């Protein structure tokens, strides 16, 4: 951190010199890791550029139709671009997909049929998928209600896929095996591309007709390869996470084999119509521009996550993943052991925001979650977790999940303010001494 920035943060934001000195020390410690991440970013930036040029993106793709949305050139173009980036046969990229959970739900319900079995091989799915599958909640149109059976295979103690247990779980009626790449609210590192490749080969080796689906939320552009490059049949994610680059106002995507995408499109609209209809409401400009910026935006977010890991591990808190670990999502988990510290961390993130920085986040009973959740996010796009944010279920062992930052500098400032708020709690007031 240069002198001018150091003094500005100290004078204008009231950040103590002890905190700034500690941040500088940690930033120096991860500089080599940053260089590796920059190389991944550059590769993905050129990959995205190539897809734009290959599909002749031009100004007419930014206009929009009305009514049914037939022959929407922008919609068709952005879906070709996504298919090229992810090296798939087809893609759906729509603002009418409201979030990542919706994209995953469309994928599951579009492909699975009564009598099929779904297996999650990375333990329990993200909280919001539990009611979709039918693990909890009744009378809401879950997969369970439609006759789709479910089982899950827990990860091994080291956070890797338990292939022996997965082999035993796969039965003749198994139609889909799903892998959640990101940690969700789990205490584990994200599943790497190398592991996804091994998993897809393993499942297809047992039965090539089983659909290998990856929940790709938070994982786009963390590697030079994506899950569909290494054997996944279909992936799904949110545009207000990595691929929207902070500019997409809403939406989700699903990319994969053409026959699977067709099935999903019939669930998205109706049988016989599929992806042929559906307005983009003038959002193709921001969706495409956000996608173009996404590799750089993701780079800033993952650097912030690495710095967060280094800062809090150096203060003897448990972190997952560690600063030196290979990254496969943008999420950084920090285990505090006390709810007061989790709440203080989130208050620091909220105070770092460009929007609603004056708001104080508090835990609440958020729809779709089993426990009270605290969420800090002063974002330009509501709920955008590629922007600086943090959230945590208020349950033992009191782990906070940090992610995002449209620039590295903003993500770094979130770490600074979170640390400041932590030091203001009675339990951790002397951690820098």
Can you give a write-up of this model?
The protein is of the alpha/beta class and 433 residues long. 39% of the residues lie in helices and 13% in strands. It has twelve helices and twelve strands. Strands 1-7-6-5-4-2-3 form a seven-stranded mixed β-sheet, sandwiched between helices. Strands 8-9-12-11-10 form a five-stranded antiparallel β-sheet, with helices on one face. Helix 3 (31-54) packs antiparallel against helix 10 and helix 11 packs across helix 12 (408-423). It is globular and about 65 Å long. It starts with a helix and ends in a 10-residue tail after the last helix. The model has no long low-confidence stretch (mean pLDDT 95).
Pick out its properties.
433 residues; alpha/beta; 7-stranded mixed β-sheet; 5-stranded antiparallel β-sheet; 13% strand; globular
Order of strands across the biggest sheet?
1-7-6-5-4-2-3
- What value does the Rg take, in angstroms? 21 Å
- Unreliable stretches covering 5 or more consecutive residues: none
**Would you list the SSEs in sequence order as H and E?**
HHHHEHEHEHEHEEEHHEEHEEEH
Major sheet: size, sense and barrel closure? 7 strands, mixed
Q: Structural class per helix/strand content? A: alpha/beta
The count of strands amounts to 12
Strand content: 5-15%
Global outline: globular
Count of helical regions? 12
Percent of residues in helices comes to 25-40%
Overall average pLDDT = 95
How far the N terminus sits from the C terminus, by CA atoms, comes to 21 Å
